[in-house]
Amino acid sequence: MLRQVAEGVLVHESEFVQSNAVVVHGRAGVLLIDPGVQDHEMDCLANDLSDSGQTVVAGFSTHPHWDHLLWHVRLGAPPRYGTARCAATVLDQLSDPEAKARIADHLLETEIAGQVSLDLLGLVTALPAGTARIPWDGPQVRIIEHHAHAPGHAALLIEERGVLVAGDMLSDVLIPMLDLDGTADPIDDYLTALRLLEGVAGNVDVVVPGHGSVGGADQVHARIERDRAYVLALREGRALSDPRIGLSARPGWEWVSDVHDGQLQRLAQRNERDGAPR
Ligand SMILES: [Zn+2]
């Protein structure tokens, strides 16, 4: 079911890790950001769109992780954009013939085993590096690219509607998940990305995270601050109280504490190897 969060901006929520697909109404059709996860959910989305006489004229993947790269044949075959770095990362991942099999294996361990089709995964059209806006006939969508969480990750700012599509940041259920494989300084990259989002936050009335609840104007700064506090505590190896982990984690989200423990361990290993960060 599509739910309107701002004029001409709607969200379709998946059962899987509360993933949010975002629909933006344009003049000739809609822009679809991170389409969803399970086949039947994207089928439902396709029904919602066709019931309202809409077709998808462009897609966008916020970052190169499988749950943001899926597609359904009923959504048509418009260009599915990503940043140049996102597209290059996907291409590199999929050049490994075992890549989809590995995702399928991972899915077998989840409650959505058998519900996800990987056929159309990752068919991302690269936007030229530095592209400022999504090329489409609709409200201007600004691309805010950074290096937090995944290579070529982009948040999208729909300025005329006051909506920030945050990708996998600013979630009320997931902690900041650092890109511990890729970048030289994942903590610094994350803090830089948060500053970029903070720079536009004044014009944001609605924040849509890749996973979690849609937040109102009061949530934008609060979520930036909470993510920053998390990352700073992680950097300093400090204990922290964060409502997303430990005893305050929501029922069904206890596993996020394991992600936190894993990040602490891997950062400690990195520091031992490379020396502690500044
Ligand atoms: Zn995700």
Descriptive terms for the model:
single chain, 278 residues, alpha/beta, 5-stranded mixed β-sheet, 6 helices, binds zinc ion
Summarize the structure in words.
It is globular and about 55 Å long. The protein has helices at 39-51, 84-94, 99-108, 186-200, 217-236, 255-274; strands at residues 2-6, 9-13, 20-25, 30-33, 56-60, 80-82, 125-126, 141-146, 153-158, 163-167, 206-209, 215-216. It contains six helices and twelve strands. 32% of the residues lie in helices and 19% in strands. α4 runs antiparallel to α5. β8 and β9 form a beta hairpin. It is of the alpha/beta class and 278 residues long. The model has no long low-confidence stretch (mean pLDDT 94). The longest helix has 20 residues, at 217-236. It has a seven-stranded mixed β-sheet with strand order 1-2-3-4-5-6-7. The protein has a five-stranded mixed β-sheet with strand order 8-9-10-11-12. Bound molecules: zinc ion.
Uncertain ranges? none
The gross shape turns out to be: globular
Helix content: 25-40%
Strand order of the largest sheet: 1-2-3-4-5-6-7
Radius of gyration: 18 Å
Q: Helices and strands, in N-to-C order?
A: EEEEHEEHHEEEEHEEHH
Mean pLDDT: 94
Count of alpha and pi helical runs:
6
Largest sheet: 7 strands, mixed
Bound molecule kinds, no repeats: zinc ion
Count the E strands. Answer: 12
What structural class do the secondary elements suggest?
alpha/beta
Strand coverage percent? 15-25%
Distance between the termini: 47 Å
